[in-house]
Amino acid sequence: MNNHNLIIEEKATFRVGNAFYRPQSKVTRDLGVLAATIYKHKHGQLRVLDAMTGCGIRALRYYLESGADEILVNDSNLDIKPILEDNLQDILFLNKVKISYKNANHIFFECYNNKDYYDLVDVDGFGSPSPYLSTMLWATKIGGLVYLTSTDGRTGTGHLPEKSLQVYGSYARSHPACQEQVLRLLIGSVLQQAATMELGIKPIFSLFTGQTYRVMLQLLNKSNLTLDNYGFIGYCHECGHYKRISWHQLGKVQCVQEKNINPYVISGPMWLGNLHDRDYLGEMKTLAKEWRWLKRVELLSVMENELDFPPYFYTLGEIGKRGKLDVPKRSQLIQSLNDQGYRAAPTHINAEAIKTNADLNICIEFSNAISRQKTL
C-alpha cells in the first residue's frame, strides 16, 4: 500500500482517495464492530455483506477486529476501484473478501436467488434508506443482523411529512423528541416490511449521532408486529404533553391536560418498543471494557439506561418554556425524579433531554422545587 495520506482507525490502515469516508461516523463503526464480534462469539461464524463500502473501512474493521470469516464488499461507484482494492489488498490475498461494483439491490437479490445469506448486512448509504428497507432482508440470514443508516433527518423529524409517507409509510410530524422519532420510524418500517415476509425484527441498538441515524436489527423467523409495538405518538402543541396512541384510539383521544380540550398532532405508525436489547448491550459493553474503549463504555451505559421508558423524551428547553422557569441541570432533575419514586435517565439522543415515566407537569413541578431550593 502506498504510504501517502494513510489514515489509521483502530486496527485498520487505509487511504481515502476519491472514495467516501466520514471520520465523525467512527462511533457507528465502533458499535457495529462490537455487535459483530458478539455475534461471532455466539454463532461461531461471521459472514458480512458491506453493501455500500466506500473506501472499505468497515470491511477492514469487520475482518481485523470482529474476525469476519468472509466479506462481500460492494459499491456502485466503479471510480473507486483502485483505492478500494489497494485498501483491501491484504485480505484479498487471503481470499477472505470478494468485491463487486453493482447497485446494492442487485446484490441483495443475487444473494436471495443463490440462497447466499449473510450474518451481517451493513447498509450505510447517504440520504433516504427507502430503496433498501425490504430488499436488504433478502440477503440476511434468519437470526442475522442488519445495520441500516439514514442521513435524511428532515423527513423523519416531521419537516417533510408527505415525503415521510413515501419513505416510511408513516406520517411524521415535528415535536421536541423528533430525533428519537426517526429511529422509531426506521425500525417500524423494517418491522412492517419483514412482516410482509412473515418475518420479524428485534432492535439490538439504535443510535443518533450528529446527522446520522443507525439501527442494528436482528431478523427473526416469524412476524412480531403487534398493535402494542407498532402504533402512534401524539403531541399537544398547546401544552407540550405526549401520549402513546394505539390503533384503536385513533380519532378518539384528545389532550385534556389544560382547561381547553386540544387535539394531539399524531405521528406514525412507528416502532413503540425498546430501542435496544438489554442483554446484547451488556455484552457489547463488557467487550468494550476489555478493549479499553472507554468512551463507548460510557455511551453504552447511557443507552442501557434508556430502556423501558415511554417512546419519547422531554427537553430541558421545553420544560423551561412550558413552566416559565430557569431549568436546573439535567442531572439534578433526574436525581430529584428518581428520589421521589419516578424513573428518569439521560438519553444519548439529546444532551439536554431526559427519558422519564413522569409527565411534563411533574417535570415542571420538580424543576420549580429545585429552583426554589437554590434561592433559600
Automatic annotation (TrEMBL):
Q: Does the keyword Lyase apply?
A: no
InterPro entries per UniProt: SAM-dependent_MTases_sf, Trm1, tRNA_met_Trm1_C
GO MF: tRNA (guanine) methyltransferase activity; tRNA binding
Source domain of life:
Bacteria
Instruction: Write down what this protein is called.
Output: tRNA (Guanine-N1)-methyltransferase
**Gene Ontology terms: biological process:** tRNA N2-guanine methylation
List keywords of the entry alphabetically: Methyltransferase, RNA-binding, S-adenosyl-L-methionine, Transferase, tRNA processing, tRNA-binding
Q: Could you tell me which Pfam families the record lists for this protein? A: TRM
